Structure formats: C-alpha cells, structure tokens
Automatic annotation (TrEMBL):
Protein name: F-box domain-containing protein
SMART domains registered for this protein in UniProt: FBOX, WD40
WD repeat segments: 224-260, 266-305, 306-337, 352-393, 420-442, 443-482
One cellular component (GO) term of this entry: nucleus
Originating organism: Boothiomyces macroporosus
Length: 518
C-alpha cells in the first residue's frame, strides 16, 4: 500500500520488529512458513474495512491463550508518541495543561520529549502564570528576579531620631511658587550593564527555590558594617548588585551586595543624609543640610549641589530628569533637571490639602503626572504635578505617616496601581484603595511605630521601632513571620525578589538572601 499509518512509518525507520518476525518465521517448517507468509501478505492487501472483518474472524476462532496474548501485546502496541506525530503547535497546547512537576517528568521520557518539555515556549507561559503574582490554579507566586528584567527597588524611610528638631511652622505658601534656577544637569555617560539571558525553565527553577525559601522562611544573613550612626535610607539595583545606604553620620556608602564589601564612601553633606536614589548615570542624595547632591556613579564624586529648600530635605525621588523632594517644613519641590528650575506643590493648609509637617517620603508615579507623599501630619496626599494641587488625601492614621509602598506588579501585564500601604508611628500598617482613598484594612502586630515599609505583588515587609521585621501575606493581611535582629529600631527596609535588606539605628545594614541560603 502506498499510504502508511504512523506506526508503520515508524517501523520503516526502525525496522527492528520486522527483523524479529522474520527470525521467528525462519524457525518454523517450510509449509508453515508459506502458510503464515500468505496470511500476512493477504492481510496487508486488504482495505481498512476488510481488515476489521478479517480480525473479527481471527478473534472468533482464537482460544483464551491467544486472546490473553493479544491483550498483553495491545497494551504496548497501542501506545502513541503524540509528541513525535503531532504538529508542534498542538503539542505545546497539550503541554500547557501540565504543571511544573509533570513537565519535568515529560523531559525524562526521551530526547524528543525532553526537547519539547524544556522548550522556552512552555516555560515562558509557566513563568507568566506564576511570576510576580499568585497563580489562580495552584496558589503559588514566584518572585520577579533580575534574570527576567533588571529591577531597581527604592527605599526612603525615616528613623526614630531624638536629635531631630521640628520647625515651629511650615514655610509660607507664597514662597513655594518661586522658580529657583539651578545649573542644568550635564549628561553623564551611562555605565553599560550586560544582562545575560537564561532558559525560561532555569528561570522558573530559580524562582521556585526562592519562593519556597520565602515561605519557610530560609535565608542567609550578612551584616554590612561601616556607618557609625543610624541608617536613614537604602536603594538597591539588583542587576548590578549595588546597594547604597544613607546615614545619620553625614555619609553614603556603596556596597557590593554579593561580597558585602564597601566599594565607596560618598562624603560632602554636612548633616545627616536622609534619602538616596541612583541609576547607571547618577546618584542623587538629600540631606538635612538643605541640599540635594548629584554624584558620579563610578568615582562617587559630587558633581552638582542643588540648593533651594529653606529647611532640611527629608526625601527625594526622580524619574528621568524630573526630581521631587520633600522637606521638614512640609514643602514639596519638583525639579526639572534638564531646564534647571523648580516649583513647589501648593495647597490649602486649613483643609489638610498641604502637608504641615515633615514630608517623610515622596514618589513620582509612572507617567510623571502625579506624585504621592506622606508626612508627620498623619496624612498621605496624592498630587497633580501639572496643576500643583492635591487630588485626594488619605486620612486615618493617628500618628505620623513615616513611609508608604505601592502594591502593584512592577513589570506585570496589569501594572496599574490598585492599592497603597502605609506605615505609621501609631504602630499600624494600613492598606488603601489608591483610586478612592478609602481604607481597606489595618494590619496590627507591631508594638511600636512602623518606620519602614516595602511591598511587591506577593508580600509586605515592615520594620519597626520595636526592633522587629515582619513579613505579611498581601492577600490575607496575616503576619507570616517575624525576624528579631535586636540591633535597635529598624529604620529603613527594602524588598527585592531574593533579598530583604534592612538598616537600623545602630548603623548596621542587614542583608537576608533567600536565593543563596548557605
């Protein structure tokens, strides 16, 4: 026959079974050889429908020993390697229904199955289903690590500072509208960063290990020592392995996160450094000396000093050339580093539409149209940058709001902000609806003020004056684990996919690594 089914096409390639049959036939008598060969030959010439009729007759004349033999033989003969015979698109569709464990079993069957089971097409789908969110099917969530895309995690926070002196009254609103000229920021060539790609299966495997370690939790701990006073802020670039800490000792320190070695000390501020942020081309810091400084990312030398605030600068955040800064007099300034000028966000003090106390954190939101800030006046405010006016106020804390974190997928398909979490000196953590300002829930557990908060799509982490670090489930709001480092109040905290980094009032920076646990 010209047309051959999948099974006989495969036999033409292997030809092992046919050779076995010929050897068995050769051991029979000549008459039996002729008879059996005739049966095979005549059967092969029949059409598909006639073959069924012939088989029915053979089964009818067969006794139990023959039927038992057929039953045992058919189990093996009817197995079909669909990975080999089906188009790859259909195979991928079938394998998409398997979980990670089953896919690993697929890869152990044979070479062709391993090639299909290890395919980036399959494992990329698995990663997109689990990474940076909890899977709706299995309930697992995997971290978004730097092997997928470089991720920078900012953290600016406050510390319980007995030396900190409040101003009697905030700056006048009329002063906030002045445009303060600064020298335009010159372009500093970015430092090239080579990011290696990995197979998606390896990426998934690494994240699975980290996810299990977070749930236990299981981690290695490294203490970075060098500051002689409390750590006020942290900023971390996971892809480059660079961490910069800001301290009450007037300095910033740059650390190689992989070795724990201090690779640079940034000196220039004359009072405590409150916030820091950096990228490949610049490092920006703020200080209670009323200045903002820009540093070279390789030499760690100060290349620009920005002046304009009339009070100590408590917090900063920038996107591209737009920089926001918050001061202890309640004033928030927005700086255009390209044009070399700034303006202040104004509002009505009596209506709580402008901060009346220290602005502990500012953050420019994606799109550079809105800004979020929190203050010692117990409020958090969402601002419209273009109109320089507040959009809504988040009120509910009964103590100074020290920090906040946006609860959103950083690189997910749905990266819209839905909730924001705040930490306050009233010992509580509150979760808010970002779009309405409505309070969703309050998390209790800390026995003293909360100074640091960070969050991703899976968990919330918090540091407190009670000297503890807590991990919270983002969906249930339950505390899943508490670290008790006992180094003093935890004054700053940041969360990456594989690390939990904290700074405390003793000047120590503690790095907990959930990937390399040994």
């Amino acid at each position: 026959m010209n047309h051959k089914c999948y099974r006989h096409q495969k036999q033409d390639q292997e030809n092992n079974k046919e050779l076995t049959l010929k050897n068995q036939l050769a051991r029979e008598s000549k008459d039996d050889q002729i008879l059996i060969s005739a049966i095979w030959d005549n059967y092969s010439k029949l059409s598909w429908s006639k073959r069924s009729l012939a088989l029915n007759g053979i089964l009818h004349y067969s006794c139990f020993p023959q039927l038992s033999y057929l039953s045992d033989s058919l189990i093996e003969l009817t197995k079909v390697d669909f990975i080999t015979i089906l188009p790859s698109e259909i195979c991928y569709k079938i394998l998409n229904y398997l979980d990670a464990t089953s896919l690993c079993h697929v890869s152990q069957v044979c070479k062709s199955w391993k090639e299909m089971g290890d395919s980036d097409v399959i494992w990329k789908r698995m990663c997109s289903q689990h990474i940076d969110k909890k899977c709706s099917k299995c309930g697992w969530g995997l971290p978004l690590m730097s092997t997928m895309k470089r991720k920078e995690i900012p953290c600016e926070s406050s510390m319980p500072d007995p030396k900190r002196q409040k101003t009697c009254s905030p700056s006048k609103p009329s002063e906030s509208t002045k445009c303060i000229q600064i020298e335009p920021l010159q372009h500093i060539p970015p430092v090239p960063v080579k990011i290696e790609t990995k197979p998606w299966k390896q990426i998934y495997a690494e994240r699975s290990v980290v996810a299990r370690n977070w749930r236990k939790p299981k981690c290695s701990t490294r203490k970075l020592l060098g500051h002689v006073d409390g750590v006020m802020g942290l900023y971390f670039d996971q892809a480059r392995g660079l961490l910069i800490s800001a301290s009450f000792d007037h300095t910033l320190r740059a650390w190689d996160i992989n070795t724990g070695i201090c690779v640079g000390i940034l000196k220039g501020h004359t009072k405590c450094v409150r916030g820091v942020q950096f990228d490949e081309s610049k490092i920006i810091s703020c200080s209670m000396d009323k200045t903002i400084r820009i540093w070279h990312p390789k030499t760690f030398e100060c290349v620009r000093t920005i002046e304009g605030h009339t009070a100590g600068v408590v917090s900063i955040h920038y996107i591209d050339k737009i920089l926001a800064s918050g001061a202890k007099d309640g004033i928030i300034r927005v700086w255009d580093l390209a044009k070399g000028c700034s303006f202040s966000l104004v509002g009505q003090v009596l209506l709580n539409y402008r901060h009346q106390d220290w602005v502990n954190k500012v953050k420019i939101l994606p799109g550079k149209k809105e800004l979020l800030s929190c203050s010692d006046d117990n409020n958090m405010i969402l601002w419209d940058i273009d109109s320089k006016t507040p959009i809504r106020t988040f009120s509910g804390h009964v103590g100074p709001v020290q920090t906040f974190a946006l609860m959103q997928p950083q690189h997910g398909l749905n990266a819209h902000i839905r909730r924001v979490v705040t930490g306050s000196l009233d010992n509580t953590i509150k979760i808010w609806d970002f779009h309405t300002g409505k309070l969703i829930s309050t998390l209790f557990g800390h026995t003293e003020g909360v100074w640091g908060i960070d969050a991703d799509a899976i968990r919330i982490v918090s540091g407190s004056q009670d000297q503890t670090v807590k991990i919270w489930d983002i969906e249930t709001g339950q505390c899943t684990y508490t670290f008790t480092p006992k180094n003093g109040s935890v004054t700053s905290i940041l969360l990456s996919d594989t690390k939990l980094i904290t700074g405390d009032e003793s000047g120590a920076v503690i790095v907990r690594d959930f990937l390399h646990t040994q």
